[in-house]
Amino acid sequence: MYVVPLINTGSFSLDAAGVAGFFGGDETLSAMATVHLYRGRRWLGWYNSPGSYTVAKRYGQLANSRFWDSDCSQPGPRYVASLSGTDMATGHLAYLAIQISRELKGMAVRGESSTETLPAAVTVIRVGDVTDMRRVGKMSIHHALLATIPITISIAACFSCAIVNDWLAFSLILLGIISSGITCLVIGTARLRLQAPTNVTPGVPPGDGLLLTPRDVVVLKGSEKDVNVITKGHFELDMHGGKEYRSVGLCSLLLLAQFLLQLLLIPQATLFGQVMFLSSLAASWAYNSFLSSLESEKIQGDLLCKVLRVEEGSIQKYYIHNRRSQAVFACSILSDGIETDEDFDAERMLSLFVPNKTRVWNLWRKKVAAQLKSTCPDKKIHVTAEEKEGLCEEQRKLLDTFLDDAQRAFKAYRERAGCLRSINSSQSWEAKDVV
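The chain above was modelled as a monomer; its predicted structure follows.
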């Protein structure tokens, strides 16, 4: 009895349509990472997506919620507290705070043009009372709704194959739709939340401090508990299934099966079926590329601001005309109200900006630090002839220039002190979606 083979081996070939599963994987992974950022995104993955091999390989390695960290985390800047003496490296959330500050428009603080070197920014962020880190809000559904385009094209391509009786192409497109939809649904069950220390030692001083970069600085104002969210916190995916994450492993196997079946069988479909298959992949790739092109760091930053209750009025940014003026302005913000506190080491904070150990700089830090520790609102810097003794004419001129810059920075802060002190936020907050 002659048996008709399921696959015609005489005409079997691996053409471009068959190897499409190798391509588009990076865009698909980037798009899948947005499933936790957009409201309703987990329900809109029902389209024949390319790159199934790359996605299957990545999800097969998922363990202990490392997916988010490995794809998105960036090392943060150095953080130095003004009262507790904490000096530490930070993580991804502090990195986002720096990115937020760079996106803001600032106000210029005027200075002498002759002393302007490299303009630098001082951004002040007052962190609100963080009461709930268990749930991070999500962005609106608008971008996610664009998924209806590849969904419609994939379903149309699937039924077009059925109309012309190309059941092989119909089945393979349908397999891609189902595997992608189930994977998006399963991955979307994970909840994005903030993980940070929730308890602090009773009596600990405020967490006011500096996030330092080579050029700009962010001044954090708030309690130790709330500032810890930025300096010690991180995003975490809370996924059901324990450490083994069997559901994710099953999705990985499903995607791998999709890749192998499409690799082997799509060349056996009709030309029309192969065109429909590639059309569905092209539409899905375009949508995935659009999602991956969105600024995920800005989206994360917006969500972080919501958790920290940092509203638009809680951030102020100023452009300062040189580094030493930046140091005086930033340290003036930190010293406000704690001038007489012995734990506030003004000279040490100034040295974070200008660590130079020359005689001129040492004297400059000493005189500026004395004013930072003074409760007199009218900051006047005086240098006696004895203190200038031993300095040559050029050094004295340089010192006078530096002190003039400091005097102008004190004046600039005094003019804006009322605005800076008024930076506040409400007393309670609950996680909610971003509209």
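The CA atoms of residues 317 and 412 lie 13 Å apart.
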